[in-house]
Amino acid sequence: MKNKKIRISKYLHELHGEYSDIFTLAGTYFAGITGGIIAVFFTSRLYLPFWKTILLSVLFADIAGGVVANFSSSTREYYQANSKLRLPFILIHIIHPVLLIMLFPGFAEYFIYAGLFTIVGCLIVIRISIHEIQQTTALLMFLIGTLLSFCFKTPAIFIYSIAPLFMAKLILGFSVCVPTNEK
Questions:
Q1: What is the DSSP letter of 158?
Q2: Which SS3 state, helix, strand or coil, does residue 6 take?
Q3: pLDDT band for position 179 (50/70/90)?
Q4: What are the phi and psi torsion angles at 95 (to 5°)?
Q5: Rounded to whole angstroms, how far apart are CA atoms 67 and 55?
Q6: Which end of the chain is more exposed for a tag (fewer CB within 10 A), N or C?
């Protein structure tokens, strides 16, 4: 069965690329919605104010959906063709830890760590030009970053998923380029 590519609206190119397929789009939004709902469910015992619950849900939706989107060939191809957008895309993700610190100021160290490790990891990986070394470096960064993330306290066990998901989205999914001969 062939999965037909559809043209993506210009204002969504940074999320999905110029062309994507229905399965990838559905998977991206399914992951996002699922991430948002699960975040609300698992943090309900924290009795957060409504605005914090909504913001946390949106952040988890973005991160979870971004994991799927950043592994898609359409998103990778878009950023490989528009390489000047790669750095701004990575740096815009400093917003996530800032917002998470607003939600849980007492656990700022965890969110600063998750954000800085991920962004620095991305910057290291995108500077590597040999695909296999780039891929291995990204996997090592993900592994080390995830293991170190458990050294911090979080307000709920579920919050520990932020660092690995963030690293999967950006270090593994976004920063590793597929060589031209593998497309």
A1: G
A2: strand
A3: low
A4: -60, -40
A5: 18
A6: N
